[in-house]
Structures
1.
Amino acid sequence: MDVIDTIVIGAGVVGLAIARRLAQGGREVLVLESESMPGSATSSRNSGVIHAGLYYKPGSLKARLCVAGRDQLYSYAAARGIPHRQCGKLVVATSEHEIDALRALKANAAQNGVAGMRLLTPAEARAMEPELSCAAALHVPVSGIIDVHPYILALEGDAEQAGAMIALRAPVQGGAITPDGFILDIAGDAPSQIMCKTLINAAGLGAQHFARNLRGLDPATVPGQVLAKGNYFSLSGKQPFSMLIYPLPVPGSSGLHAFCDMAGRVRFGPDVEWVDHIDYDVDPARGAAFEQTVRQYWPGLPDGALSPDYSGIRPKLARTSPHDSDFVIQDMRTHKIAHFISLYGIESPGLTASLALGDYVFDLLERHNV
């Protein structure tokens, strides 16, 4: 049986960023992806927002990697010609009783190293966004958007140029830990087994399923998983905002935000729909709740202007806000298995943090001399 030095399971933006960094560091890397295209699951089903780092607990992985990854992502996108825009964000308090929460958010973000923020009066906010209604707003100039598909292609190209190989339609069903490394069971059109010395589990929605089917790994180390479906609705008619508009967070998400993608399409979302299986259909009946929520900060939303668009599934560890949980990245200190790193719960801000996540995994391997 042929032995590969390093296998990365998953070719979303996080798996590709890790593969890119490891290959550029001189490793032989094979990426195994179950789908027919890289990034076709979670990575391509989000809003493409470049997050500033407002919400996360200071010192957490999310806070540190979001801020580091944000700066790396802007530089990378500019260098590679990837469409992006540092449009800025307004986080709005829609009533007086939310203003203290807005101040607390600003203080938390400052601890995370987010610079340039300013609290705005309603008049100052309307001077920036005339369609906006609010009691106060937090201006965050470092937030932005990126065209995700070209970013995925750039990561894929970088990884391959550095020598990494990417195998599509190669779902990893499980495997076994051996004294010499890892044997992986690959299904698909040509079922097979392959062996590697170092294994990175970056399978996103499938990370827990794979880990529970890796023989020799203590199942107690595998965290739980819940599926949070986020639905998006698109706007027909004139674009109301030039910036990202966010309400204050709600349980489970950052709230129904307004964003305009690089093609000029305006969308609202995501909401939170707890599901027990992966299903990307958007229920039109959810539009009524969208309209009610959006009108809290945009009372001028015309009747019937929202249409079901797309959805994504967040790989969450519990039914908590993404701001109240952290990324879980396990190495041998947790599971006692050398040469194995497993990433769980890489939800928002995973896209923003992806390049920093690649560096983090590389550094973990270097630290353990793996």
2.
Amino acid sequence: MELIIIGGGPIGIACGLEAKKKGISYLILEKGPIVNSLFNYPVNMQFFSSSERLEIDEIPFISKEAKPKRNEALEYYRRIVTSSQLNIHLFEKVSKVRREAEGFYVETDRGGYRAEHVIIATGFYDLPNRLDVRGEDLPKVSHYYKDPHFYASQKLAVVGASNSAVDAALECWRKGAEVTMIVRGPEIGQRVKYWVRPDILNRIEEGSIRAFFDSTVSEIRSREILIQTPDGEKTLPNDFVLALTGYQPNFTFLQAAGIHLSDDEKRLPSYDPQTMETNVPGLYLAGVICGGMETHKWFIENSRQHAGIIIQDILGKKASQNVQKQTS
């Protein structure tokens, strides 16, 4: 096989489409369902980007509103996979990528595959940034938010001030939860969706949602939560905690594959932006994983072009090898 693509999200799908168009034999490996990360987004989530910016391979994305919702994105990408008959294995998790004399061996929980080239397009949604406090592993704590109905009539602490935290706070409050936000910084994040940010600011100002700024969680207990605030430590009654403090790529996986990471807090993986090839020959990166800890740098709309860049480089190498064979 010429190419294995690790990750069946929008960018992995785009890579598969491009490989198929250019006659490259490929296989997409996805550890969950089609576009697994999008599937695990909150049920009512609305994208910041408009539908045309989420399109791949110039396939039109029609949505009811300018900015589509999660269910519309799931339908769009699923239809692309099925109608294009992409070669994709779902619910097959990759555990290791090993460089060999000629190409790569990709090990999964179902077996293994050999390929000349590998694209890693796994995103960053699998590993949450932990609070690292006592009680974080209690069943009442989650790093993922799905449905506001679950928190109705409950005392809910939402940790964070990004889009996911703000969406969760507003939705759960509107379903009857008693919501308290715990924000490490002095304000709600400036990157929060511009049509949502005034809503959360108004709810905080009127007292509907309580917010502690410049504050952190110090301990989580079964029926309460302890937080450090500018006014000292406070103990709040609590039923559930949503620790929506962001996520990070699987750096251990990247390093095990031989990819170099920068030594600073950004942990940027090493790759050539002209080809998307990493320091490991034949191993490419695509999508948001290219940004390391700068998870706000790459999105579907500005990384979908990675597919064409990578496939063009693979084709160039293939042509060079054919010339060498003919002249040798």
3.
Amino acid sequence: MEKSKKPVSQHISDFLDWLDIEKGLSVKSQQNYHNFLKRFLSWLPQQNLQTVLPHELSPDLVSKYRLYLSRALSLKKSTQNYYLIALRSLLGYFSEKEILSLAPDKIKLAREKEEREIHILTLEQLKTLLEACDISTFHGMRDRAILETFFSTGLRIAELISLDREHIHFPKNQTDELETTIKGKGGRIRTVYFSRRALDWLGRYLDKRTDNHNALFITYRSEQKKTDPRRISPRMIQEAMKRCAVKAGVSARLIHPHALRHLFASDLLGQGVDIRTLQEFLGHKNIAATQIYAHVTSKQLRDIHKKFHSGKRLE
């Protein structure tokens, strides 16, 4: 390890290049890391440390920064963690480039209360949501196909939006499912699976398409005239899901794209799928990212145990 003569702030550009080239993160992810690190860099001058060098970073300094995030900015612990993860990644960069600095594992993430309430969409609520889609309209049929695809594949919203028609090759056998390869978060390649049910709804949706746009999921500026087809945006999907939630009488806070990814994961775990297999389905690089779903299942089991086997019958 060698000591760098450049202040931490002058390493940021190289760090972002490292995220791009060696870690394969998307442009959006790089921007997020940069924005979170800007907070740290703007805090350093307040401590008269604007020229702090990598090897001068210390646990005490990190502790003061954490207090700043918590007390001065009043950030929730979950939000604090975004800033801490960005800083920890910067330390990981220093370590990989053999630049003397604080070890990444010296930054511990803020722990949220384990008993915080977890709101998970249920299968019954999903059924109600699906039935609320007005399939007599093009956009309603599209929304139904989107929801079915989310639940079948466990895709992230960015992954679903990036799907093209060429990804979907309907099997000749009407009972077969479809597996297709996608490029997920961090440029990682994985296989996702479309159930026969999801394919049926995709087929019905595509039958209503009159355009040649390559995107699988689109929106028309005019639904009646079917003009100006464009790839659907994350905001459009979120708004469509909220509209369905209102019709279905389901709490809007439960209905968002990631909720269906949660339901996909918890349903597989509930059916006995092991955590490592689930990691592959979800495309997580680190098993720790998959553990949250195991926690959700554990909480459900704990609630069942408390209700039916608390020992009260012995009293």
4.
Amino acid sequence: MSNTVGIFGLGLIGMALVERLMAAGHTVTGHDVDPARTEILAAKGGQPVTSDRLWQADLLLSAVFSTDQLADIIAAAPIGAGKTLVSMSTCDPDEVAVLADTAKAKSITLVEAPISGTSKQVEQGTALLLLAGDPSGLDIFETIADAISPNRERVGDIGSGNKTKLAINCILGLNRAAVAEGLVFAKSLGLDPETFLKTALNSAARSDVMVAKGPLMVAGDFTPLGRISQSKKDFALIRDMAARNGHGDLPMVDRYLRMMDNAEEAGEGGLDNAAVILAIQRMAKG
């Protein structure tokens, strides 16, 4: 069944969602604060609209950068909208739970489906969607979710989707840093990075992260599939959530955030998160 799906936020993930939904025959409307992004949407056959008109869609997806931007969407939403809004970004789990009550007062059902995976994995239909919140709202989302990915898990009440996403991101980010540091160390020993990576991929150290990011690190190809700035935002949230829940000392998270700070200070915030290797190279030199 064809639906009209409205998307707030047309960045890497938002545009990947556009392509998946349109390929499945859905009509896509979209809004972004950057006019250049709406021009790309139009070129792909989607319909750029104002944020208020976006609420005329059958179902709304949010792929914005931050929790504050999600809050702004709900604050500006019409009263009595009677729609389901699916938050697909990494957001603060506690604040999302509060926003669900704010949305409910406007007859909006806010549910979560944060994406575990890169924009490329979204394009390929292989990303994992972490569904949480009101079951009836999730049922509505499930009517179009196959167009995005068949890989989905319902993980609990509102907020649980982002809690799960942050815990997964913690493992992924630290794994990226481990791969990068291993490559830097191998090169310092005089090993050829490409040969070393090939060998490591045949060892017990192999991981999906090494498969996906290792070749990019060796090639120095940091075309963004997921940006340093996003990774820094997520890890800052991981640190803050840990502190709220009585676990303030996460030493590897703190170290990773120092790498992200180093990368941003070098002007690399817009690069793929595989560029953590550049920060490690600088930090290894003292």
